[in-house]
Design brief:
CATH architecture of one domain: Sandwich
Largest sheet: 5 strands, mixed
Shape: flat
Helix content: under 10%
Distance between the termini: 75 Å
CATH topology of one domain: Immunoglobulin-like
Number of helices: 2
Number of strands: 33
Strand order of the largest sheet: 23-27-31-29-30
CATH class of one domain: Mainly Beta
Radius of gyration: 57 Å
Amino acid sequence: MAINFPGTPSNGDTFTQGTTTWQYNGTGWAIKDSTVSNTVFKTFLADTGTTTADAVNDSFTLEGGTDISTAITGDKVVIAYTGSGSGGAGDVFKTVTSDDGSAVASGSTDTLSVLGGTNIATAVATDTKNVTVNMTAHSINFLSDVDTTSSPPSSGNVLKWDGAKWAPGIDATTGGAGTDADTLDGQDGSYYLDYNNLNNKPTILALSALSIGVELSPLGDGAISYDNTTGVFRYRPPTAAGIGALTAEINDLTAAVTWANVPNANITQTSVTQHQSALSITESQISDLGSYLTSVSASNLSAISVDALSDVNTTTVTPSDGQVLMWDNGNGYWKPSTVSGGGGGEANQNAFSTIAVAGQSNVEADSTTDTLTFTAGSGISITTNAGSDTLTITSTVSSGATSLTGLTDVSTAGLNVSQIYRPAIAMLAVTANGSSAYLFNSHYSGNNPTISAFKGSTLAFDLSGAGGHPFQIQDAGGSPYNTGLVHVTTSGTVTTGTNAQGKSSGTLYWNIPSGAGSTYRYQCTSHGSMNGLISLTPI
């Protein structure tokens, strides 16, 4: 019987006819021994590189590197160290580094010496592994920020900071002690100058002690005196002789007189009668003009406008024919206004002249008897009752929507209250691959993917497809994390924190804190393999 092997086999393919099985080795078909196990390693991996068998009879060679030998004895592969050292079993440091320089071992038996520097001694105890480092006696000047050499200390000195180092200085324990006045510069510490400790302090008058005393007797040209002991000012007027030649000018105004040189107190009404005809006094110079208006004739009022009255304003609003003066309480004056009395209403009745509708043109009255008409639109009826002065607007639509899905221009697309409870940057649809892994195919591919989110944002998990896989958010260590968690059922029941965890329906919202860590986990509380990472980054 002819055997019809496949025409284009691949390396490793098998073909069975009857009770015999052949396997293709890359060049031909060989009978496969059914008693031999088919479980072998096809690919070997090393720290560096990999190798894969090219045929069923391919060979793998195990070679030794530097100081390494390999040998096969029976079914055993022996790998041995052939170097001159201790076989590489010991942990040693080849390089030792210090603050100044380093040392590198030149061989496996090289020696490292620990030597003491200035004022340092080293010792290795016999038959031990201990190295002892001892410091010999040191002066404080050994410290890098201390200088007792440039200025050697004397008895009683202390170390003071001079801006660059600690150096010997005088210990000034009280203000002004010794001859060092430097304790007062910049008002150091407790060494302030105290005014209350001074002697022979001058007497300083307070402003409240200043006053004006009784007027003194006239003397000469007059003066003002001040007593710096009592703080009293006193005025001394001039004598008649003190004003001298001014007397003649006051009594005789026939000659030119500079008005600034004539005191008002020395001018009387009788002194100026001889020049009465030459005086000119304007209205603005008389402060009490009203007291001199004892009578006014009708001819004197002909040139006076009503606007001259303090509580009348016909300038801001120019009057027109038929208007009257009406009181404007807001501005506090009478102003021209039109009295409207149509329809039997009073002239001062309250009324709306303009009807404003948002998004529409204003409806304005064209006259005092204008009519506003209400017109019913589609699905609306309007009825009036003259007796009760009422207007009723009624919908004539027989029925309407009673739910969101009943609206003709709205599609809920399977949404429920849990999915629109609060805004989130992403709504991840949670499903499962059996009991082995979670899936988030709306945003991620593959089993148990790593979820990325921003700190300070809100992430939502739609658990309607989670089935019997309770969903839990954990910290990096695997403990339940309850901060910012809110769970909402499809009927609107809300739970938070611990109570929001372990749900397999509804929607889980996570308000991620801005100060949260970088790594968290999600975990099915019923199946250990269903878990993955949540990576958080700052916004």
